Structures are given as C-alpha cells and as structure tokens.
C-alpha cells in the first residue's frame, strides 16, 4: 500500500500519475490487484507507457521483468530500482531473472509481466505459467488500448495518446495446471478486455 512506500516512491507515483492524467489524458479502471499477498499482473504490451499505467493505477508497488538494456541508462536504472524491477535478457531464457521473479512472489509482492517479451510481439513466452506453478499466485489480466509505440521511447512519452487501461477479474490456477491452459486462459482474458 502507498502508506508503506518510501518518500521517493510516493513522489514518483504522484509525478507519474500527474503526467499520465494531465499530459497523456490517460484513463484507467479500478485495479483488481489484491490488496495484499502475491499477484502476477499480466498485460499486453503496446508501448513504453504500459508499465507507467500499471504503476500509476495501483496502490501497491509493482515490480517488473524489464529488458536489461534499460538498465544501461543510469537515470532509468534509478527509477527501475524504486520498483525493485528485475533486469532480464530477451535473447534467451533468463533463468536467473525467473528465480528473482519467484522471490518477489514469495515475499507476497506484485510482479508485472508482459508475456510477449517485448512491444507488439505476437509470440508469448511461458514464464507466467512457470511462476503460477512455483507460487500459486493469482494472475490479474490487464489490457492497454489507445497507445502506440513511436520510433523512440522519448517520442512515445512526448506524444499525447489518451491510453485506456482496463483490468479483469483475477484468475486462480491450480499449481499443477498445464502451461498451455494457464497461457491460453490468461491471454484470452486480456483479449476480452480490448
């Protein structure tokens, strides 16, 4: 909850919310992320605005699996560290990042994942299913519409887009659920929010 955040985290949350509401004209539904306990927040990925929307719309810190190249920028690295995000290699299966993600869930925190592994990719990865099996955490589907990635991240942040973030009902899977079942149900839930 916000009351448990550091002063830096609260200030960043306020700035982010103001930027999205007043500059981007963003709207979001009430988050369905549980008020406590582990949760896996799974969203489609259409632009660099997506994680910002997920952070601003929640009262809990959301840790993300983030492409390692974002950590090369010192400013971005400091911001990502405020959400306890996890750098991940996109060129191969990053077991270390998955183990860190499992640790986030073991601590009862919220983990944000974009299952495509990148912006506007059509193929999904099965990390969500593995994390469900390892943690039994509920999966919260979310969908971002009305946003598009420009030629650069900076252009995307500067272009006013009026994005809309919608949340679905949390999905509960048995720990032994088949990966195809978990991914199929999750991606279907996200698609119904479009």
Automatic annotation (TrEMBL):
<dbReference type="Pfam" id="PF01553">
    <property type="entry name" value="Acyltransferase"/>
</dbReference>
<keyword id="KW-0012">Acyltransferase</keyword>
<keyword id="KW-0808">Transferase</keyword>
<feature type="domain" description="Phospholipid/glycerol acyltransferase">
    <location>
        <begin position="39"/>
        <end position="147"/>
    </location>
</feature>
<protein>
    <submittedName>
        <fullName>1-acyl-sn-glycerol-3-phosphate acyltransferase</fullName>
    </submittedName>
</protein>
<dbReference type="GO" id="GO:0006654">
    <property type="term" value="P:phosphatidic acid biosynthetic process"/>
</dbReference>
<dbReference type="InterPro" id="IPR002123">
    <property type="entry name" value="Plipid/glycerol_acylTrfase"/>
</dbReference>
<dbReference type="GO" id="GO:0003841">
    <property type="term" value="F:1-acylglycerol-3-phosphate O-acyltransferase activity"/>
</dbReference>
<comment type="pathway">
    <text>Lipid metabolism.</text>
</comment>
């Amino acid at each position: 909850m916000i009351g448990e955040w550091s002063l830096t985290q609260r200030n960043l949350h306020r700035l982010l919310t103001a930027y999205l509401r007043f500059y981007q004209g963003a709207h979001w539904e009430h988050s369905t992320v549980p008020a406590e306990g582990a949760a896996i927040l799974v969203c489609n990925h259409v632009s660099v605005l997506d994680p910002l929307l997920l952070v601003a719309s929640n009262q809990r810190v959301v840790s993300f699996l983030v492409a390692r190249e974002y950590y090369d920028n010192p400013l971005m690295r400091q911001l990502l560290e405020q959400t306890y995000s996890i750098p991940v290699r996109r060129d191969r299966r990053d077991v270390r990042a998955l183990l860190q993600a499992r640790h986030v869930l073991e601590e009862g925190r919220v983990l944000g994942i974009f299952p495509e592994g990148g912006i506007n990719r059509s193929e999904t990865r099965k990390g969500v299913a593995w994390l469900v099996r390892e943690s039994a955490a509920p999966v919260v589907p979310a969908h971002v519409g009305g946003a598009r990635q420009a030629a650069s991240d900076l252009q995307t942040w500067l272009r006013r887009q009026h994005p809309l973030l919608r949340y679905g009902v949390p999905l509960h899977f048995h720990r032994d659920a088949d990966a195809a079942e978990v991914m199929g149900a999750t991606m279907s839930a996200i698609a119904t929010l479009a």
